[in-house]
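Allow me, if you will, to draw on your knowledge of protein folds for a short while. I have a record of one protein: its chain in single-letter code and its fold written as discrete structure tokens. I should value your view on which stretches of the chain appear to form regular backbone elements. Thank you for your consideration; the sequence and its tokens are set out here:
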Amino acid sequence: MSLSWSSTPAAIRGGAVAAILGFVISIESTSSRTINGRIAECSYTNFGALILGAVAILAGLVGVGVAIKVTENRGVLIAIAAASVALGVLHILRGVGTVGGPCTI
């Protein structure tokens, strides 16, 4: 049987959607202080990436557990769930400003 959206477990679908939306939805907070024209302090948070990253990680981990129990398309489902976890980690790093953001130079 082929893999379709409706036959994919809900946890894997939710993780994939959260991982994709993490690139689109952004709720940012930036604060910086300059001294003599140079940035002395900088703080950046992207709450959208943080929340969606956490959802992608949690749903992806649950999805891996569900995919292990499935008999059809197991490899594909595990790969999608693992990709959701990986993208969730990326979003968390983006959310705290470690990857990207105005404070990384």
Q: What stands out?
A: The two ends are 49 Å apart (CA to CA). The CA atoms of residues 34 and 57 lie 36 Å apart. The chain has a mean pLDDT of 91. The beta strands are 28-35, 38-46.
